[in-house]
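Reopening closed ticket. The problem is back. First fold of the pair:
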Amino acid sequence: MEGALVSVAAGALKPVLEKLATLLGDEYKRLRRVHEGIEFLTQELSFMEAFFVKMSTEEDPDVQVKLWMTEVRELSYDIEDSLDDFIEHAHDKSSKPGFMKKIKNLLDRTKATHKIAKAIEELKKQITEASERHKRYAIGDSISKVNNVTIDRRALAIFEDVSNLVGIDGPKNELLQLFNQEIRCESRHQQPKMISIVGFGGLGKTTLARQVYEELKEHFDCHAFVSVSQHPILKEVLGTIFTELCKSRSKRRKNKGQSLPLSSIEDVPQLISRILDFLADTRYFIVVDDIWNEEIWDVVKLAFPRNGYDCRIITTTRVINVAQSCRSSFNGHIYNMDPLSMVHSRQLFHKRLFNSEECPTHLEEVSSQILKKCAGLPLAVIAISGLLSNKEKTKDQWCQVESSIGRGLERNPTIEAMLKIISISYFDLPPHLKTCLLYLSIFPEDSFIEKKMLIRRWIAEGFIQKKHGYTHYEAGEMCFNELVNRSLIQPRLEKDKWDEVIVCRVHDTILEFIVFKSIEENFVTIIGVPGVNSDQHKKVRRLSVQNSGEIPVGLNLSAARSLSIFGNDVKVPSLLEFKHLRVLGFEYCKQVQDHHLAGIGNLHHLKYLRLNLVQITKVPEEIGKLQYLETLAINCFSQKALVPSTISQHGRLVHFIAYGCIMPDEIGGTEALEVFETSLDRHQSTVFFGRGLGDLTNLRKLRLAVSSYKAQRELACSLRKLVKANLRFLAISLSGKLNNLVEELNLPAECSLQELWLWGHSISKVPIWIGSLVNLQKLSLRLSSPCQEDLEILGGIPDLRYIFVRNEHCPSAEQLKAAMKVLMEAHPNHPTLVWQQEWRSMA
């Protein structure tokens, strides 16, 4: 059912159609009434789907139409749940033979069949009534599909411009002057110098604070940058401050420094005491970003001592009263954030759309009108440029966008006006991208969201349509890239070694909008966020529980398709309350223990399961019953969890991550696996595991953290088998002296491998076999002391594009120059060479 997408607009209408056609088309021909109903539904629902798509582009549809769409959408979810229950029951293989058992199964099957027939009649009735109200469906123009979308580098450049270039130098210099730049003064009569940056959302307060922080932090003994957000948990905020301070001091002194045993921290006073002790005789620089109320600041400020060592504190806020409170705490300054000038707005706008500061003559006038309405809000400029980048560069197209903005921003440049611009960008999206964007509302404010995890969730929810010639994940990656290109999600500018986006975040103003839309459409129910109230009388479709949230008694959870728990203070509900989950995620949930997973085997429709930083001792054996499971990610907090042998029963498992786990020997049964990540130690030292690994011939990506492994020969043999099949990416992190494993690999020249990571413990020399890998494009390794022979081997790799090298001793300028000369002469495509210890990129 690759084309049966679930969407915000139409709910589960498409999956319902395909499941009805598949299930009842052949097996139940005797049920004439059902077949007539299916034929009617097929015709009507095709028109309804087009009508839903058209109406999804309307900001304010007719109230009657909106109510009708909601009714049909909710009904579609219920019908699909009934179909899924029937399919599960009809294909139940657990029943034992016997006359009475067969009679019971027949009766149950008959009841289920009539239940479906009744449900079809109910849906037919609803559609008939709708047809009488709407005699004719007006079908709008079809919305183009996104094909093979990659991230537009200009979309990334616009965020870099905001961070580093556009209009930031002036405000940054003003803040530096306020600090007087007396960073070497050690008068014991001084208290910390404080600046509170204030301004409404979308102005770039965080960006400005970050720029000053990066400019000055190295002048201090320790430093920290922490985001508070609208609904913070004080213990986590203070814990983050302490952790960042410890890390910065450790890095500066090149030792382990003081660590923070978070599990032992039980209350806020204890954390404040630890921070005060840590900073007592220290010059520190701390940024506390996005403070929403004075009460939070009144607690956080207690952790900052007046130690007389000329320290610095910056806060950012939208609320003038909070800024005044921050200033009075340390006799500091308030800096009012101004909008961008027209010159800087135009620079930011043109950089994204035209890759220069020049605008085509025929668009100059309308561009000026658009920028005038953006009123100097960087986020507004970014959102509108993302919208226009997907439209033809014609005056008529741009004038339509300009007229749709209205005059709100010119009169009232506030959050409400900002939401207007975001709504225009949202309603311009095709239906599948609307759905993918609104799904981001499940994540807490200020979350850094892993791209891979997000795409896996989209797939499990049924939002991604598989495209010919691409994997399901690659199709999801196109959707992710399109949202980046439209500037609706922000890539985290710290990319991976290959300069690829791996993490994103949602600006808090955009998050405010998509949370509102998600609740309005009953797409997501959010618990634990003050001020966000969902209708408790509606059935929950997707549930996100955050902060210290507790699910209200009486909330209907039986129809929930996904459950996402975020944080250590959330009360975990019983899985027995859920019947139709497709997605289950526990994020940073140390409170989750073995008993919380009771009943997981009854979640027959589960496709995605993530247990991140939990404290379980074993994965339930009944996980083997989850025949639709496609993604399983486990990361245990404090002890290793035993993964049962029933994991080998998963014929559909595609993505499997298991860290802090003890894997069974029987791993070869999961033959559909495409991505596998795990750690190997003395618990996984058996010959059987190494051999079974070689049976996973569908693997595209394999990541192994090896600390101890006796059966190295069998492991190397399996790896050679995998690269001869489909393996494109291989990463081996060596925690011990395992040079023999690297030598034993001896991968064949004619293999599928495109990326190779040899990480962790350094190897003494580059193996000769690496130089013959004909398809290798990216290589990352750690050498104890690279020599000329190593460089010559690297220079012999025919298709190499990127090299990432780390060595124990910092290379001299002469070594870098010699290495670059060898590689450049060997590769006309000019690979990128990076020596990690110096972080020097040479192109």
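Second fold of the pair, where the issue appears:
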Amino acid sequence: MCGIAGLFDTRSDETPNRDLITAMTDALTHRGPDESGIHLEPGVALGHRRLSIIDIASGQQPLFNDDKSAAIVFNGEVYNFAELRPELEELGYRFHTNSDTEVILRAWEVWGCECVKRLRGMFAFAIWSQKHRRLFIARDRLGIKPLYYALLPNGHFVFGSELKALLPHPSLERKRDACAIEEYFAYGYIPEPRSIYAGVHKLPPGHTLVIEKGQKSLPRPSKYWDIPFADNGITSIADAEHELIERLRQAIDIRLVAEVPLGAFLSGGVDSSAVVALMAGMMDQPVKTCAIGFDVPEFDETAYAREVAERYQTDHQTDTVKADDYELVDKMGWLYDEPFADSSAMPTYRVCEAARKRVTVALSGDGGDENLAGYRRYRMHMAEEKLRGMFPAGLRRALFGPLGALYPKADWAPQFLRAKTTFQSLARDSVGAWFHSVSRMTDGQRRRLFSQSLSNELGGYNAVQVLREHAQHAPTDDPLSLVQYLDLKTFLVSILHKVDRASMAHSLEVRVPLLDHLLVEWMSGLKPEWKLVGGDGKHLFKRALKPLLPDDILYRPKQGFSIPLAKWFRGPLREKYRQLVLSEAMQDSGLFNVDYLRQLQAQHDSGRSDHSVVMWELLTFALSQQHLDAA
């Protein structure tokens, strides 16, 4: 696992400044503390920071082909490189290393841009072709590994694993993207392809991009893969259960190759427990497992993790995070560069920190909820879909629209009295309702939050457009499959963003077997009615896991990493909110209605309203801006 950076001068053959590419590469030292590599030639600079996992002795980068006419910098792991290598050797290619990096480069020499379709794994890489004066960049199918890029006014095309790798370039324009700000305050993250800066883009998952010498505008990325949601032909639920476990077992097996200590995260949830249970049957020694506990009982799941650890006799370690671990807040700006409001980033950071003390590679259970319909919101959405189907759209808008507007928000009330959101969703179409359910702030809240100048700059743009564009290209019209598809394209990528930054901050590689693309393709083709049965999400997966895990693991309510934000903003973070969110810098930004920022804190302090989600978005936004302005 590594960090990559580079510069391609599309206008001249002047050799880039060594100090510049060194600064870009060194910004990623945390991703690859073991080695650093720099290559300079006329018009091109490539940089690499290495975390040694496979072929420790000879896997240095940038790596070149035989005649030095092509070079690659690569971040990730390709798990089928050992299968591809004999095929390439039969075509006459000689190998000088035992690394997956060299296999990618050789595959590109044979298949060109189509080489990505042959790769099984997680990756972001760039290949420079000296012969064609052309740069090829690619990102894995699900977005496990990140890649930022920009074409600067001086003709420099720059790229890097994180936004911080681009910041040293003096020609990088720092203009905030108004649409990205709208999207951030809707979703709590900035979805691909935008970044916080108008001129910087994130390469979308499953896409490649080619840029050539002399190109004056940024080319559009090219999609090479999508989640098919095509019937996989399985007609028996028993057959589906058996094949699911066998496919997952195989996805885990190919991720156990490493020349460094390897283990797994174990939260006690269904997905991580399944991964550990199957790992235990494949390894000759006890699986090293890591769990994070909280010193507040309602947030703590370690008893469940311990139950699985004892059952499979893992080498288990639990670290406890204090409920007042708010000191980590100050790291969030540097860690994520862009504003990122998933508060579980902090316990994720801690579990990665704990894991790195024992292993260099950890397997995780991420991806199970999106692929197999595990989130509670899927159940809620399908219930609303049934109601939407009973009324014509016009009648729904006329009936439920006013009810949603008039019904009080009632944060303080019992759950069954909080009908405002349901009424608002029923008045919308399916995609609009899904956007309403996943949004952290309503349209009305964002209108009150934004200044008039920001609203004018947005020109009516609404973040729902992100989902509508994905829905237009969705390969399914099944209501459950559609929202799974939307989550796989947006929310899942944000989770992977969270895990990538938290793990790489500690030079820890995280592998995600439930996001093996062959497994994802197959799971997408399962019958939707097997995934969500009544109120039981991941129904098929849980049935398949019954021989491996007890019912109190399989059927307990989903919890996830949580921190007590509401309490923090009435206590230890109250002053930090005032200092950062109500600061002169935020006021001078001209982005927000300052009276509304103060109102949020006053209402939250009173205890009658819980604005902690919005206040956290604002605080992490302020931390990001503070970091970016200083960089």
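Update: turned out to be a display glitch only; the data is intact. The CA atoms of residues 147 and 203 lie 6 Å apart. Residues 612-630 form the longest helix (19 residues). Please close again.
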